[in-house]
Design brief:
By secondary structure, this protein is an alpha+beta fold. The protein has one helix spanning 2-29, and strands spanning 51-53, 71-80, 86-93, 104-114, 129-140, 152-153, 167-176, 195-202. The chain has a 5-stranded antiparallel beta sheet with strand order 1-2-7-4-5, with no helix packed on it. A 3-stranded antiparallel beta sheet has the order 6-3-8, with no helix packed on it. Residues 20-25 have low confidence and may be disordered.
Length: 203
Amino acid sequence: MKSDGKRARKLLLTVLVVGVVSTVVGIGTFSAFSSTTSNDNNSFAAGTVYISDNDANAAMYSVADRKPNDSVQKCIAVTYGGSLPADVHLYWTPSGSDTLSQYITLQVDKVTFSGGTPTFPSCTGTGISIASSSNLFNANMNTFGTNYAGGVSAYPGSQTQWNNGDTLYYRFTLTLQDTNSANGGQTAKTTGAHSFTWEAHQQ
């Protein structure tokens, strides 16, 4: 009899468990009203800062045996191709062999042309003349800035920022000063192989 009682209790518990499970499944089966909406095709892209020039990897100048008051003048075009408005600063990187820049007057001008634009690195051409110029720097070359913070800034036209497609011409005039200190005797003084850099920062 006791064995039958245990079997009966087990059977009852089984029925109860099955009933609870069925109830839970039933709750999941019958859902309430629902609705959704979505916002599709989202994307996120960074803006760009990009600057280039027309030198085709050639130096603006490479001169030797200059005498006092001799000058060299060259022009280069810088173009901004970024999508974000930017500031552009110009600076130079002297080489370790620089012994002459302290005796060179460097003049940098922002220039515009009429009648066309010259081919790098010239500042002249048939029917081409300078329509306007604005001085950016005029002092001893060795005092020219050597990083972005110390460089000179300029903007195309009357703008206060560089925009995509803007181009600006820079004219460089280097003049050897009339001082015997620039005379190196048997060993010529030189600026070494230096570089000019235009660096653009997003505004």
